[in-house]
Design goal:
Blueprint (H helix, E strand, L loop, with lengths): L1 H9 L16 E2 L14 H9 L22 E4 L3 E19 L13 E10 L25 E11 L5 E4 L1 E8 L3
Antiparallel strand pairs: 1-3, 2-6, 3-5, 3-7, 4-5
């Protein structure tokens, strides 16, 4: 029993496949992702280090890494924005997760995401009838969930930080869909 619990913890704590892991093939789509916040530099040495690439914020791909230590986040510019993720493979999504460090150890909790929307771009096609209208409604059978390959995480607000929002990790769980 103890070995099973330790094995589950060692396999990413939840024991569920995360289809949004960079190491499994998931990638950030730069053209659909908000800019990264770069804090202002102080002094000539910091300016030089940044110019040489020795100081920079973590890239958006940081949210696809299981590391969630304090400060190991992607600082998205502003209090709202988005990140688009191309999943490792098509998935029948059952749940997703957004992680942030605990409030008790956070450097500034105001940068934590507050309101989030998750959008999935589904694979497949739909046919609409030509009813003469400029708008067409498409209904989906809830029992026939289409597979998802691209996810857009929209941060609507954070807890009050005006400059940036820190995203530590985003997970996608579900069932593999054969290609």
């Amino acid at each position: 029993m103890i070995e099973a619990a330790l094995s589950r913890y060692a396999s990413d704590r939840l024991g569920k496949t995360d289809f949004a892991l960079f190491s499994a093939g998931a990638r950030v789509i730069p053209g659909l992702t908000s800019p990264t916040f770069e804090p202002p530099v102080r002094g000539l040495a910091q300016k030089l280090w940044r110019k040489l690439g020795m100081i920079s914020s973590h890239p958006p791909a940081a949210i696809l890494d299981p590391n969630t230590h304090v400060g190991e986040c992607w600082p998205m510019r502003g209090s709202s924005g988005q990140v688009a993720i191309h999943l490792a493979q098509p998935v029948d999504v059952t749940e997703f997760g957004v992680e942030h460090v605990a409030k008790s150890v956070a450097i500034d909790w105001r940068s934590a995401p507050r309101q989030i929307e998750v959008w999935g771009y589904v694979l497949g096609t739909n046919t609409t009838s030509d009813g003469g209208s400029s708008a067409a409604g498409i209904s989906a059978d809830p029992s026939q969930k289409p597979p998802v390959r691209t996810i857009i995480v929209k941060v609507r607000s954070n807890w009050g930080h005006p400059d940036h929002t820190c995203l530590y990790r985003f997970r996608v769980h579900g069932q593999r869909v054969p290609l």
